[in-house]
Write a structure and sequence with these properties.
By secondary structure, the chain is mainly α. It has helices spanning 28-57, 84-107, 110-123; strands spanning 6-8, 16-18, 67-68, 71-72, 75-76. This is Autophagy protein.
Length: 124
């Protein structure tokens, strides 16, 4: 099969969506773009889930571009029926959000976070 990126759903139908394209022009491309769009929306969903975990540790932190369904910063991540400029802007927003999550993860101190969580539990 080779080395190709894909995202797999672990719930419900356990579907697999390809995060790559061949670049060829043919009728099957329409169907492939649909699967690629589903993969990109699934990736946004994963990124949004990570952001929610980050926000549990620090409620003042928010994604620079909010994610809602297939939109990031109000721009659709779907390639099909979109123009190149709009899609590129959505990818830019997605990458900045991913960079934000990565920056938090690289500076995260689990020991300090555990202390804050246990302190909050003591208040109850």
């Amino acid at each position: 099969m080779g080395s190709y990126s894909r995202i797999e759903r672990v719930e419900e139908d356990k579907a697999s969506y390809e995060l790559y394209g061949s670049g060829e022009l043919h009728i099957g491309r329409i169907f492939h773009n649909r699967r690629f769009d589903q993969a990109m929306v699934a990736y946004l969903n994963c990124l949004q889930q990570l952001a929610r975990v980050v926000e549990q540790y620090d409620t003042s932190l928010k994604l620079p571009y909010p994610i809602e369904h297939d939109r990031v910063g109000g721009v659709s991540i779907k390639l099909q029926f979109s123009n190149e400029e709009t899609w590129t802007r959505a990818l830019h927003h997605t990458l900045l959000n991913a960079k934000w999550v990565l920056a938090f993860a690289s500076s995260f101190d689990p020991a300090a976070a555990a202390g804050r969580i246990s302190d909050a539990a003591d208040l109850d």
